[in-house]
Amino acid sequence: MLLKSLYDYAQKQKLFDNLPLQKWDVHVLIAIDGKGYLRSNSLIPLTQQDAKGKERIGQDHLVPRFPGENNGGKAYFLFENPIAVLGRDKISGECISVDPKKGKNATKSFFHFWNQIQEAYVETKDSRLKALLEFRVKYIREVDDKMQADLPFLKIENNKKGDPELFGDVGQKKPILMKNLRIAFSVDGEPLMLDNEDDLLRRYWSQRYVELAFVDNEDEKEEQKGNFGMTSTICLVTGQVGQPIARSHKPKIKLKSGNGYIVSFAKEAPAFSSYGFEMGQNAPVSERVAASYTLALNKILYDNDTHINLGPISVCFWAKNDQKTSGLFHTLLSKAYPEQVKDFLITPFSGISDREVLRKERLYTAAFKGNKGRIFVQYWLDQPLETAQINFTQWWEDLQIISLYKQTSNSPPMYAIPDLARTTLRRTKKHKDDKLLAERIICLYRAALEKGQLPITLLKPILDEFHSALVKDDEKKPLYPFSTSRFALIKLILLRNPNRKEGDFMPTYELADTPDTAYNSGRLLAVLDALQKRSLRTNKEGGGKKPTLNAGVIQRYYGRASIAPAQVFPLLLGLSQHHTSKLQKGNEKDKKAAASFEKRKEDVLAKFRANPGESPNFPRILHLEEQGRFALGFYQQKAFDREQYHKWLETQGKEGEEVFADDNENAE
Q: CA of 568: how far to CAs of 522, 606, 610, 624, 628, in Å?
């Protein structure tokens, strides 16, 4: 159960104990002394520009969390915007009205802010709070039904755009824009925050928060007893009876795609209200549990080791006991460098040798998407860690494929799920992720962790994009047709094809010796393509240079050859005779290359003959799965030829063959 696993995570991390506090940016401090007077350096900016030099970023501090939901007219404790702290409108910069009917929520929030300070001082007698109250008496007064902040070293003026800005002392280089500004106080040189665990106000707020957040008035408690059946209602997550039921599940869950709730209830919803249900009754979860699971999910979404944002989707990982595991799986599935996976397969999880421990540990995976205040669960998986390891091992083995070009430490990961998913999508001009990226990523995650199959129809966009990249690839605008990720995914789809029968073609890591006609058709096209390009270098030195060819075999015939080989290959074989003849008339290197190509061509053609000397029998039509095998044969033949070519270069012609002509082509 998703909520139960999140609740357990919160219990282990003791997140509920820290619920009254949160990390938040504070932009400016108003500096006062112990008697409430402004100090000489009265305004202390805490802001800095972001990497682009535009947005304002404040200092991260531990501050009081707002109890419940702020629907207007309420303020945070100890820090707030200029309206609540100074009585100045953050948009216009004008003084707010004293009359709540005129000032509405702005006036209410101002009084609420200072009333909280007063209540806390009465309870704690904290001298810092007394200084704040003295500050208000000295500098914020009611003048002509307006709240007037009379601050001698503080002024608010409009900039050229008409937006109000907050100025501090003389000599301050840049003003601070009031909009979205968060203000706190510094008393006698010490910021009034709650970062210190021993702070008296931190202990006070921890108690006060629970009182405010979890039903603070007796009438509402009686309503819960009467309508919710508080003494008999069972919490769906823990099974406990007699716990206060959460009317709404707060705090909100924060996703990149939007904030909202996993469990929510519209009071006017006919499906529930027609049965007399009140808020929370449709999903009875105790207040403690609701707060705990939302805190847990927000922490997971905050930690880069336990989640990854992929377009509108946030994918999360966490383990039941050892949280190092979740970070490890995140790295493997989102980056998947060979050395990392090798270590993972040898020593699975932090040196765990007891298989029973591995079986008891569980891995949780969930994908979320936000939309209009609600959080949708796109995917949820709860499985033993041992099962996840076994499935991932099989996933890794199924993906392995020879790379056409040499991989280095700077090469991008070949088997990372986001990179695999992008091979299924159309490459846009601005290289933005397709809207389908998140859907494809979830599909691949499931296949990796559940040992699932991938639909054969997924081959269609992969093959279409490969064909497009082959035809349009250019040195100035490379499209990387021979991406290892693309062919690793093709191999995986073919291996996990549910319709594949025993004895059918089995994709392998490198070039396969198989009678499969679709695969061998792809091999043959790769040989004929290389032959044509090599013939362009007849009687020329520098065999490693890329030949110049406007529209060759691939550009003209790949599409038709991969669908209807019988229509195309007789023509291509006729053209190949011309290319072979041209090489045979060249120098010694050319003649050796001609012989190598002829042998290679005949070896592949033999796969299409029932008996020696007969004409090759090419397949008439290739269906989608067969087109995938065609592309795989084409790629693996090129990879094999490249390996032979480099062996030929390294041994100065003593080993290997000069049968590869695309050494400078884009690969990754």
A: 12, 18, 20, 18, 18
Model's pTM, two decimal places? 0.72
Amino acid at the residue 505? F
> Any idea what DSSP says for residue 323?
T
Cβ-in-10-Å burial (0-12, 13-18, 19+) of 61 comes to buried
Query: Is 185 exposed, middle or buried, given 0-12, 13-18 or 19+ CB atoms closer than 10 A?
Result: buried
Asked if 377 and 366 count as a contact pair (C-beta separation under 8 A), the reply is yes
Residue 204 tokens, joined = 């006070």
β partners of residue 88: 95
* Burial bucket for residue 461 (CB in 10 Å: 0-12, 13-18, 19+): middle
Residues 527 and 635 sit within 8 Å (Cβ to Cβ): no
Q: Give the integer Cα–Cα distance in Å for 108 and 98.
A: 9
Give the list of residues 6+ apart from residue 663 with CB closer than 8 angstroms, or none.
544, 546, 642, 645
Mean pLDDT of 49-75: 72
Confidence of residue 342 (pLDDT cuts 50, 70, 90): low
Instruction: For 560-583, give the secondary structure using H, E and C.
Output: HHCCCHHHHHHHHHHHHHHHHHHH
Is there a contact between 471 and 558 (Cβ–Cβ < 8 Å)?
yes
**What is the rounded CA–CA span in Å between residue 227 and residue 437?**
45
DSSP letters for 546-561? PPP-SS-HHHHHHHHH
Is there a contact between 411 and 283 (Cβ–Cβ < 8 Å)? no
